[in-house]
Structures are given as C-alpha cells and as structure tokens.
Amino acid sequence: MAQPNTPAVRRRRVSGQRFVLIVLAGPVVGILVYLAAVLALDPPDDFAREALPVAVLALFLGWPVGAIPALIAAIAWRLLPQPGGIWSRTGLAALVGALAGLAGAAGAIVLFDLRFPPPFVYPVIAASGAIALVATAIPLSARSKD
Asked: For residues 97 and 65, what is the distance between their CA atoms, to the nearest angstrom?
C-alpha cells in the first residue's frame, strides 16, 4: 500500500541544547539588535562618550529583561509543530520571536517595575525578538535541502 504524502507540518523535536541556547544566547542577540536599531534611529553625537558606555551597561542589565521573552520563545518553539521547509521554519521563528519579545517585554516591565516605553519602541522590541529567535533556533536545526 502506498504511503500518503507526508504533511508539510511535522513535529520536530527541539533538543535540550537548542532550548538552552535560545534562553541563554537569545537575550544577547536581542539586546544587540535593539541597540543597533536605537543607534541607527537616533545616532549620538559622540559615539565613544555617549553610546559605548550605554551599550556596555545595556548588555549587562538587559540580559535579565531579555531572558523572560527568550524563555517564552524557547517554550513556544519547543511546543509548536514546525513546518518542514527552512523558509517556513524561519518565518514561524520570526513570528514566535516577535510575539514572545512583546509579551516578555511587557512581563519584564511589570516584574522589574519599569516604565512602559513609548509606542514607537514596540516594533523595535518585536524585531529584536524575531531576529533573536531566528538566530538561535534556525542555524543547523535541520539538514534539509530547501
């Protein structure tokens, strides 16, 4: 009897190492993307004097804030069935990362008693989460040729 075509969406097992990578490296990637976007949108007059100390401080203080969205993204990435194609997985990772970034940022703001940022910052947060999850979840995740 012939096997029917396999579905485009498969249950791929996300390894424990990948889960840990998403949680530990995701905040660093997200912070770097966030800082790059902020510096590109509002470049300082004196980079070495103004932006460099802020960037170093953001890397150390931003990791705990970024760990919450990274944990949400890692859990969601582990639980969701993932498409078979690399481009579909990348799109799904970007969507999950963006949503996790927004939800996690809101959770971190409440947890750490921070002020909510102005509305124009939310797309930057979403992009940071999307790029962070794509960068940590997709590379070498499958050996497919698509």
From this structure: 15
Asked if residue 53 has pLDDT above 60, the reply is yes
Neighbouring-strand partners of residue 82: 10
Q: What is the CA radius of gyration of the chain?
A: 17
Helix 122-137 crosses helix 16-41 at what angle (to 10 degrees)?
140
Amino acid 41: pLDDT: 85
**Alpha-carbon dihedral 28, 144, 83, 76, rounded to 10 degrees:** -30
Query: For the whole model, what pTM was predicted?
Result: 0.83
Using the structure block, give the residue that is written with the tokens 């947060």: 125
**Cα 74 to Cα 115: distance, rounded to the nearest angstrom:** 25
Say whether pLDDT at 77 is over 80.
Answer: yes
116 and 109 in contact (C-beta within 8 Å)? yes
d(CA 134, CA 62): 19
- Regarding beta strands 82-83 and 9-10, do their DSSP bridges make them parallel or antiparallel, or are they unpaired? antiparallel
Residue found under tokens 């997709």: 138
Can you say whether the dihedral through the CA atoms of 129, 64, 62, 27 is positive or negative? negative
3-class state of residue 83 by DSSP: strand
